[in-house]
Fold this protein.
Amino acid sequence: MRKWRFRHKIISMNSLEKTPKPPVEAKPLFGLSLPELTEVIERLGQRPYRASQLHQALYRQRITSLDQATTLSQALRDTLAAEGYIVGLPEIVQTARSVDGTERYLIRMADGETVETVWMPDGDGGERGDGSQAAEEEEAEDRAPIPAAFPYRRSTICVSSQVGCAVNCQFCLTAKLGIRRNLTPGEIAGQVAAVLNRHDVELGSTRGNYTPARINLVFMGMGEPFLNYDSFMSAVRLLTQMPIPESRMTVSTSGILPGIQRFATEAVRPKLAISLNASNDTVRESIMPITRKWNIATLLDALATIPLRNREWITFEYVLLGGINDSLEHADELIALISGTRCKINLIGWNSGPDMPFREPPQSGVFAFQKRIMAAGIPAYIRRPRGRDIYAACGQLKRTVETPLTAPLVEIAPAATLPG
Ligand code: SAH
Ligand code: SF4
């Protein structure tokens, strides 16, 4: 008995000695603002200008590992690594490419959760499939030659703000996921960095003959940005450092009133799109239950408080659901509703999903609806669906690792090896 105790003691001491030190918890740097990086750097006893260098490396250079931060001394990089700091960009783990050039990425976060992000290159001039206002304003410029350094006139990235969505719009596939969690600022801005790195996109000001890539961002992926307001706005501020100007960003909300009210007071903010989708509360309630909380009149009142900048409009998105909201009477009702607002309408033909009780509107009906609105003097565009065949179009983003596609997934090679 004694012997056993003794041995037991020895064994446990041995095993204690052999127990590896607990791993230092990985701390992502990507996502931290300059003041936050300064805190990290000062805590390590370094001079504050090192924080600016790190900031540049993260957001301008878009490093993927600390070794690439060559403006920092090796000693500082080693110290950061020893303290558990990593760059921590989310990772593209699956890709699919549409016949129209759109690419959809499954992007994995550190905890294994995934979201989808979409790349919409615009090679054919003047289309309006990406939902961004900047794209529409650039139609005239599109006749300019394509810059050699970048094979597109512009490209738009559709960014997710949450894993899943809590809003439960009846026509949206993402809604079927429910909400799993909010994304952090680094995870939101990190989707953009990961996609830009994949395509080797150089941003920045015009230098000599070099024309920087025109990148537009639409926060229209998975999730409701205004239900993750603080992280979303922090991500916007990080993205402006890359630099992508906020005038090239459009955020879409289903109409979260407190979010709209805060947005109205922001000094730096993207353009705003509202998913209206109906011309009266009854129809809207039946397809967007959130209307019970904030009805259309309440939303319009809040929109009226947003100080619009030069050449800025509110965009109303209107998903046309065959037989539900797509008649000419609906168009007239819509005109009456919004004619007091400086706005334009983005018409989106419903993109189908499996087991959903809706039908696509007939093409002729979509054109007639558009014509009616235009006749009232309100600009109306039909958003060309992008990447429908790979489920990358509006409302189709859903984690396909969980739900197999009905259309085949086309796996593609990294962009660098793609022809053209
Ligand atoms: N959650 C935000 C942003 C993401 S949804 C929002 O709802 O505004 C982006 C756009 O896709 C919204 O305008 C939404 O109404 C639209 N949408 C959702 N499901 C769709 C579908 N199946 N077909 C076409 N558009 C859809
Ligand atoms: Fe969420 Fe937007 Fe889909 Fe509605 S349309 S469920 S708000 S992602």
In short: The two ends are 77 Å apart (CA to CA). The chain has a mean pLDDT of 85. Residues 171-172, 220, 224, 252-254, 275, 277, 317, 319, 348, 350-351, 353, 394-395 surround S-adenosyl-L-homocysteine (ligand 1) (CB under 6 Å).
